[in-house]
Amino acid sequence: LFLAVCAVGIGGTFQYGYNVSIINAPTQHIHKFLNETWTSRYRKDLNPDVLTLLWSIIASIFSLGGLCGALVGGSMAIRLGRKGALLMNNVIAILASILMGISFPTGSFELLIAGRFLIGINAGIGLCVQPLYIGEVAPKHLRGAMAMGSSIFLTGGILTGQIIGLRELLGGEAYWPLLLSSSCFPAFAQLVLLPWFPESPRYLLIDRRDELSCARALKRFHGSSGYHREMEDIQRECFALDGEKPRKPWQLFTDRGVRWQLVTVIVVTMGQQLSGINAIYFYATYIFKQAGISAAKIPYVTLGTGGCECLTALTCGLLIDYVGRRCLVIGGYLLMTLWSTVLTFSLTYQELYPWVPYVSMAAIFAFILSFGLGPGGITNTLTAELFIQSSRPAAYMIAGAISWGSFFTVGMLFPFIVTGLRQYCFLVFLLECLLVAAFIFLVVPETKNKSFLDIQKEFHKRNFGRNA
């Protein structure tokens, strides 16, 4: 089971974290490439406004690709299987790497844009299908810890990208095409590793009606003596579905039986993206400078933020099946509310005392730790747990579309929010964190050690009334 998580993670959420991270290091080198290419092609200098537009397209088209990937990921998981969809997804990653790698020698920034779009599609599919696979192969007493594998590999991708992007490695001017095309290596790794592991047993029995293959897969994952309990659980769910086919995303919006599950997924997914984590990274460089850290050393300090996320993802993975989902996610949002308050005050009085920037630095790391301990890791886990087999792929498509749409919206609006409110932008995020914590406290039951059918029964009363 542990090795299966590693095999799906290296080409799944790792790719998302890695490709979000590596685009920051070569910013100036890509600007230079755009200027030189434009001058060579059109015999005139590139207008600064056009340069800004081109760079914005290169940076933001990744999220547009992610949205497209999220919208097709669920369908791929149904048609090709969870394992088949992940394997096919690597072909997209390799093609994207080739396009980004040859953009510089061919003098074509259009290939760079196309490559970023394709690697965005790859990330969108991976974020949809990987947690789907892990959630379906995990036994209920380990489901939380295994589902945290998605978050661990995502944060590991961010940290790896930050390290590889250092100027001593591939962050130098001569190597940026290699940096952007290096995402082919996780893709090749998954193509080698994943075929050794079985398809999702739930998919084999419930979707494909292949009981023999399901039993064989369960024996691989749980051993010859311990697979019967999992087999019985899957058979109960199969019987309850009574031959129901996988559903389309729009069907979930009209089904009263999943109303509050869908509302929960929408709220927690938007809450994760709008929690202020992007604002933290935006302000990090400014705060590090105020604390007296030289510009040359800031990339190394920034590694600490990536290390924080990795540490909390691992910690959350160890705690989630003991403490429970509700406690961790509510606690995470409440702690983020506290650190948002501290940051608002410390940024307001940043110039007043020499020790205040260090309070801001501590608050930044504490905010990231709080995010990773709750919202950062548990959101995907909840999406897997709140739906039964026929609705789960469609739920991931909806969650993915909302996540990428929110990511894109925050990217577009955030500069204006910061410009208008400055440090008081954290008051907006403070309010959002409080509201999401309150919603989870009032609506979402604890899902620890419960089967998918048990969780569905918990929501049945809320969906159809207390007397249902």
Describe this structure in words.
The protein has 468 residues and is mainly α. The protein folds into two domains: 197 residues, Up-down Bundle (Growth Hormone, Chain: A); 224 residues, MFS general substrate transporter like domains (Growth Hormone, Chain: A, Up-down Bundle). The chain is 78% helix and 0% strand. It is built from 22 helices and no strands. Helix 5 runs antiparallel to helix 6 and helix 14 packs antiparallel against helix 21. It is globular and about 65 Å long. The mean pLDDT is 85. One of its GO terms (cellular component) is plasma membrane. This is GTR11 protein. One of its GO terms (biological process) is dehydroascorbic acid transport. One of its GO terms (molecular function) is D-glucose transmembrane transporter activity. It is found in: Membrane.
Q: What is the fold-level CATH name, i.e. the topology of the largest domain?
A: Growth Hormone, Chain: A
Largest sheet: none
Cα-to-Cα separation, first versus last residue: 38 Å
Helix content: over 70%
Report the average pLDDT across residues. 85
Q: CATH H level of the largest domain: which superfamily?
A: MFS general substrate transporter like domains
Strand content: under 5%
Q: In one word, what is the shape?
A: globular
Please give the CATH class of the largest domain: Mainly Alpha
Q: Evaluate the radius of gyration.
A: 23 Å
Count the E strands.
0
Given as residue ranges, the uncertain stretches (5+ residues, pLDDT < 50) are none
Q: Which structural class is indicated by helix and strand composition?
A: mainly alpha
Number of domains: 2
What is the helix tally? 22
GO molecular function: D-glucose transmembrane transporter activity
Keywords: Membrane, Transmembrane, Transmembrane helix, Transport
Membrane topology: Multi-pass membrane protein
Family: Belongs to the major facilitator superfamily. Sugar transporter (TC 2.A.1.1) family.
